[in-house]
Fold this protein.
Amino acid sequence: MPALPVSFLVSRFPNPSETFIQAQVEGLLERGAKVDVHALAAGNADVLGALRLKWQDRLKVHYAPVPKTFGARLLAAPAALGKRNALATLDAGKFGEDASSLRLLIAAARWPQEPPERRVWLAHYGRWGRFACALRDLGLTKGPITTVFHGKDMSAYLKKYPDAYTSLFRRGDLFLPISDLWRDKLISLGAPEARTMVHRMGVDAARFTMIPRTLGEGEPVKFIGVGRMVEKKGFDDAIRAFASLRREHEFPNATLTLIGDGELRDYLKNFAISLNLGGVVKFTGLLPHAEVARELAQAHVFVLPSKTAASGDMEGIPVALMEAMAQGLPVLATRHSGTPELVEHDVSGLICNEGDWRALSANMKAIATAPDRWAAMGQAGASRVRGEFELKRWNDKLFERLSGLYAI
């Protein structure tokens, strides 16, 4: 039987904040698929060097670079207008924002021009699923299209473009939201129920060592958070809650480490300083995966108080939470998006309402004063990840689903 041909369509590759895409690429390659990636921008290859080195003889990456700003796309438009299908890409009645933004024009002009072979297309995020359908309509691709829905595409993007996926539901072949919450929302928007199935973004639990957490005599309680420094991660709430923990709840020796980078990093550092936490809250910046694992191994409690950003941007189910739970960390999280589908309150951690830093601080105190519960919470979380969010299980299911789609 010939290898299953799969093409990923993504906005950027590789992307350190979207390691789940690389995990799927690797999983399909391991199962014998013939995989390539089509990206509209290049990412930082150094961040994911191990995967790239392991599979570089089998993984092909194609770039059809599309400028980020409309002004830059406008400057590139004259050259693109001389290419095949150029006028068709500008049909806003058919292609909507993909046409009016000129993204489709530029991508089509820079797309590989050889006749397309039939493949299964796997697009991450709803807008790129719709984009994949447009490329197929233009004759630049061939084969069924599967779309994975995550967080921002189900929140902020739909807030801006409420009817963004109407055409995708008609033209797409399979829809894979990462949570029950998003599946229900997609169906309410008109997605075909029989072709809309939850598909978790899991983690390879075997890569992580489960360490029961204990507190040594005189040892400070070590809180840790990992994620992009953006509004929806709620790290400002974590810092404010931590300040309250130290002052009002009398835990002056507790520590907080925040790992990651992003547009709010400087703001958060200055915010910590304004709360007299300049020498207490540690900002490490972006770290290699192995160093993140070492930091997690030395911590006691994981904190990720996600919340809805002003733009409407929301999480899916954060991979960072899964990785922390797989290593036995009890977690502090919020009732946000699909997080309650992963974290069970008072079993694997404590959950409060999003944006409620006072409740988060109270949960910090509750968990800090109960180190005798940490091991059981950590075990419950690790068991949950190994059961429902095990990457190998979901990659098996992905290969099965895409194989079935290709055979139709």
